[in-house]
Fold this protein.
Amino acid sequence: MSTKSPFDDRFTKVAETDEIERGDGIAVDVNGIEVAVFNVNGEFYAISNVCAHQCAPLDKAGEQKINADDTWTDTRGGVNEDACTVSCPWHLWEWDLETGEHEASGKRIGTFDVEVADGDVYVGI
Ligand code: FES
């Protein structure tokens, strides 16, 4: 992506705001770091896309997936807009999107600054 950031050099454009639906997230690569960007009530949050439990991709939270026998699983995990958290699609650990904390284990994953300008979402690493 070549769009020049209106913010400092840490920030990279990762999406347009309408590409991330409310209550959902996308996976992006920012300087080689796997980041998930979620839309919570119209605010955007960036967090590591690698769950600290067993490395599930958090952007898949709340999605269905197809199994080897061509059946679909129910959705697992997802964004809780009231709590501003995402539950991992594998074992439902709930990550705070502002702090990166999983309260029960005391583990924490990376969170990143997000800025929005002219309908574009930027993540600062
Ligand atoms: S891999 Fe995320 S809760 Fe297990």
Summary: The chain has no helices and eleven strands. The mean pLDDT is 93.
